[in-house]
Fold this protein.
Amino acid sequence: MTEENVSTRFDRLPETAAERTVETRATREEVLDWWEERFGVEPAVFENYSFWERGAGKIWAFYGDLDSPVDIEGLGMTFLRTRQEHWKPTLEAIQRFGNHATKNCIHLTEEQATRFMAGEEQDIEWDGDWGYLIVTHEIAGEPEPLGVGLFTYGTLQSTVPKGRRREL
Amino acid sequence: MTTLERYEPLIDDVEAFYAACERPLPSAVRVNTIKTTIERAKTALTDSDLDFEETDWHPGLFRLPNDQPGANWPYVHGWLHGQEEVSALPARILDPQSGERIWDACAAPGSKTTQLAALMDDTGLLVATDNNMGRVSALRSNAERLGVTNLALTVEDARNHSLKPFGGGSYDRALVDVPCSCEGTIRKNPGVLDDWSVEHVQGTAGIQKGILRRAIQATREGGTVVYSTCTFAPEENEGVLDYILDAEPCQIVPFECPLESTPGITQWDEDLVTGEPTQYDESVTRAKRIYPHHNDTGGFFCAKLEVTG
């Protein structure tokens, strides 16, 4: 229990807490549980993926597996931030896997989705949980996950990273 | 003599060639089938009032007859990626399959890398290397926007590529789309000829040979390597292929090119690397030269090799 996270390389998440060697590191079990509890995404969706930490609390999802640690520049996609008390999925993970979600998804109108992608905060009706929500809107006739919003006190804050914001 | 004049003896229709080089390059986008279907992307483009024409040789590769589009919903969802039409060729010729191990040797900024990932259905292992950290950041951001998960990315000189992080096993296929003199991009980047020099051609050809060698070495027997450039210079095309036939166990194999092209050339009187009129191996005619006037694209060179040992 004395090892520290090495922020420049990829270390595979331990399966369970019993196998944990870096105290602050999330486990695969916790990550799968979190996606299921928060968004109803079944663990089977991630069956073929391994999870890695590079950067403190920055979790990456990679198709397949490699021997850990891996000292390279990128491994799959950034997937989840576990550093704060409330874990936050990345926009990329939501766009890629969010269509498997069954709860905590908020569907926006075209106008609301436009404000969301511009990075704006907006007042919104929502009876569900507070915290990070999957934001969807309709494209090509079906709802599609767009990104992550933070709902508190009747407002939806856009967490779209600056580089991904667009005026549509 | 201007840079392009040296290629006149190689070109089937010199007048059409110069006329095409003067015209701006049409915009094109590729549908990212990792995140959507071609049908849904077409619906989304239509709903966004974006005109498009489907190319007849690559599913989901569209020409945009109007200017480069601004921000639009299908782009924001990672359903589309701007990619020059001719640059979609080498990944198609490489033809990677689901579950295979693939190496993209000079990957950034990642148009071809992400196309490879899509052709692999985002499964297997796709290793991408590039020696420029800034360009690798651009690659990572493109790959993330397009939802690629099978990608392992390293910053290294492809000539010294290490298989160690990936368990040491060889690749099924490798794409070697090397840095080059880039005259073929003149329609997109009219200033490209300003940087052209004899020394650059000579130096670049040396690097290209080193990268192609490493790719042959790192690919299994019977595996496929595709070599491509966007230069017309035989020193960087047929000259590199002629070299590799002697240097490593491989052969150049025929392939069907879905775009209009001419065969690789076997005789080049101006060879800047050998410094004398040079004859290349007959099998380099299996490679394809694509000039801008052939398909109204950029210029390109593409060869398919099989590893034989």
